[in-house]
Amino acid sequence: MRAPHHAPGGELVYTTEPEALCPACGRPRPRCRCAPANLPPPGDGIVRVGRQSQGHKGKGVTVVTGLTLGRDELARLATRLKRLCGAGGSVQGWTIEIQGDHRDPLLATLAAEGWRVKRAGG
């Protein structure tokens, strides 16, 4: 793989490294004009699947956090996971919430898709 090539002023001219480009707009990161709200927060590479009931009127929801996907990809994944579980849910910030306790099928599905997953909570 070729190393990044910088112009005399230090601006990135060419690279084959995908992490040097913004996933949303495809521009080199120093020239990216995307709003920071559209980019996922940096994570440790582990997707955590847990259960919460606080703030949901006592009803349990399965919470998936740590996904480093853009907003559109996150919404598509949430739709697939909700369909897999046969339950409703939503995307809240960078978190997927699915109604009910569906930790085991979600762990298996995400692991099969190549994510590093961990069961969070009890």
Structure description:
It is a single chain. With 122 residues, this protein is α+β, with helices and mostly antiparallel strands. The chain has 2 domains: 5-38, no CATH class; 46-119, SUI1-like domain (Translation Initiation Factor Eif1). Helix content is 20%, strand content 25%. The chain has helices spanning 71-85, 103-112, and strands at residues 5-6, 12-14, 46-52, 61-65, 89-92, 95-99, 116-119. A 5-stranded mixed β-sheet has the order 5-6-4-3-7, with helices on one face. Strands 1-2 form a two-stranded antiparallel sheet. Strand 5 and strand 6 (95-99) form a beta hairpin. The longest helix is centred in the middle third of the chain and has 15 residues, at 71-85. The radius of gyration is 18 Å and the shape is elongated. The relative contact order is 0.16. The model has no long low-confidence stretch (mean pLDDT 79).
Brief description of this entry?
Helix content is 20%, strand content 25%. The protein has 122 residues and is of the alpha+beta class. The strands form two sheets. The chain has a five-stranded mixed beta sheet with strand order 5-6-4-3-7, with helices on one face. It has a two-stranded antiparallel ribbon with strand order 1-2.
CATH topology of the largest domain: Translation Initiation Factor Eif1
User: What is the name of the CATH class of the largest domain?
Assistant: Alpha Beta
N-to-C series of helices and strands:
EEEEHEEHE
Count of spatially separate domains: 2
CATH superfamily of the largest domain: SUI1-like domain
Low-confidence stretches: none
**Radius of gyration from CA coordinates:** 18 Å
Which second-level CATH architecture of the largest domain applies?
A: 2-Layer Sandwich
| Whole-number mean pLDDT | 79
Major beta-sheet overview: 5 strands, mixed
